[in-house]
Write a structure and sequence with these properties.
The two termini are about 45 Å apart. The relative contact order is 0.12. The radius of gyration is 25 Å and the shape is globular. β2 and β3 form a beta hairpin. The protein is an alpha/beta fold and about 650 residues long. It folds into three domains: about 450 residues, Glycosidases (TIM Barrel, Alpha-Beta Barrel); about 80 residues, no CATH class; about 80 residues, Golgi alpha-mannosidase II (Immunoglobulin-like), CATH 2.60.40. Keywords: Glycosidase, Hydrolase. This is Cellulase family glycosylhydrolase. Belongs to the glycosyl hydrolase 5 (cellulase A) family.
Length: about 650
Amino acid sequence: MSKPSIDVRGSRFVDAHGRHAILRGVNLGGDCKVPWPDGGTDRPSDFSDHRVVSFVGRPFPLEEADAHLARIARWGFNTLRLLTTWEAVEHAGPGQYDEDYLDYFAAVVERAQSHGLFVFVDFHQDVWSRMSGGDGAPGWVFEALGLDFTKFDAADAAHVMQHRYDYAREERRQEDRYPMMSWASNYRLAANGIAWSAFFAGEILTPDWIVEGRNVQRFLQDHYLGAMAAVARRVAHLDNVIGFDTFNEPGLGWVGLPMSQPRLKATPEDPLPVWPGPAWTPLDGLRAARGRTVEVATLGWSDERGMLRVLGHETANTAGVSIWRDDGPDPFEQAGAWRFDPGGDLVLDEDFFRGRDGQPIDHENQCMGPFFARVAETVRAVRPDWLLFAELCPYLIGTGRMFPDAMPERSVNASHWYDIDILRKKRFDPDLPPDPLKAKYFNQMAYIAWLGSKFGDDGAPTLIGEFGIPYDLNHGEAFEAWARGERGEGVWTAHAQSLSLMYDALDALKLSSTQWNYTASNRNDLRIGDGWNQEDLSIFSPDQVDGPAPNDPDAGARALLGFCRPYAPLTQGVVTTMRYADERFELELEADPTIVAPTEIYVPEARFPNGAIVRLSQAAARWTHDRAAQKVLVWAAEAGPLSVVIEPA
């Protein structure tokens, strides 16, 4: 087998020539979470067709692939975090893989290769499944667990747009029924608590929960990894595939939580963040799942910094609906966590989800470590040179908790980062001074990169697997301006400035990244957006193609100047500094002329419409500008420091 197209060397990516590689990419795409063509959350569904849906056509029909992939490559991206889901592969039933979809997925990867794009495969999920408010697992998984997803809404076991939204109303947003960004609340509710606890800790918590002859954890992971192996086998011949993501933003379930006491603050022993709002405990979730009407404490901030207090209670599952298909007892009751009792339900073990035999459950080392090892074993049985893009639960990032002590070799820290204020509030003021935000972004991303430095003795590269901004910022004012006929980059001033600050931090830290996201079906519609739970973070929309020059190769871009900027994807040596400011690109590296391939610098036409002026610090070094490819190529003359400065002609 030939050398991998992208490999790792300590904390750096390197290409087959040994050049320092910076992967700058985009997630493709946001609508891959839902079936094609009409599975978006902007349309009602009861999910009764979950076994016969198709994802062929996500991220786009194959006949449209070249247009989209050429656009992505033109904008300087060299990498795709290509989304698929467990449901897309295995929706028909256990072990029944959708062969048409696998053929389609491989065809998309092959088209990406023809456009010079690396690919790593992301098995995506959000809050476990479409039936529990997100995407990921097939519907039959709930049946295997003994759960009836058709009763989730009535039992308040999941917060699902298709159940809460009134599609007959004209309002594009219905904050009274389905507040924006509220989908994440599902991590607190029973459907997610049960599913994630079983997936990662079933062998620890419920050793007697057997599904088809195996512990529930083994059953779930075997099928998840079986779907991953099916995709791996289908793309193994394509050299642009560089690896697999382990599982997008995996949940913790109830592992680490006290059984019945709401958490009022984070502590060194229990560092997970706390939030205002309903404080569902595992006992609340288990009782509601069995059909109890429960009173859930609602929390708000107290006068003490970082401390919450109980403001009151809200009633859940007023209909008294059980989500268990045989109505119980549930596996956690059978394992000794609690007792469902007509005279009053009882907690039998307050520390059931926190410890065993007097020792705390170490979620990262006992649950995630073995899982990472299984993912690596699964994909590398198909192709040994693939990288492992590892993710922890995003709520652990910043708490001081680390990746497992033993990480598979050639792993990548693929953690995510967002400006949570922008993401949740969808507000950005371009008139505010940029320096405080720039410092904040740098420090937060530097911390994430530090996590990767703890992988083994030599550390690992960090690739920020997701970051980005909502394009419906400031109440969708850019969409309104576009609808009025305004055109040009001025429409996207707030978006471009916020993205530029993020890329400034990535450049300063020399980090790889894949921005969230590119959605081919995106619309300038507050109900639709990326087609999933009213999110709208796509850098492309067909609604932007109708500008004054629809044949413009950049047509469809949103805030092009926020993400389309020069950088050095491949360098003949190790990058020490990379910076772009005031239309001036600066690169410094420790050149290594024994590497035969040159430094490549992306010089976008959007930034350098009349060509480029290039200055090199080594007198004998040489360069050329390939304007058609939007690249400046530099060959070092000698080992040691080499600086490159590029400005518009």
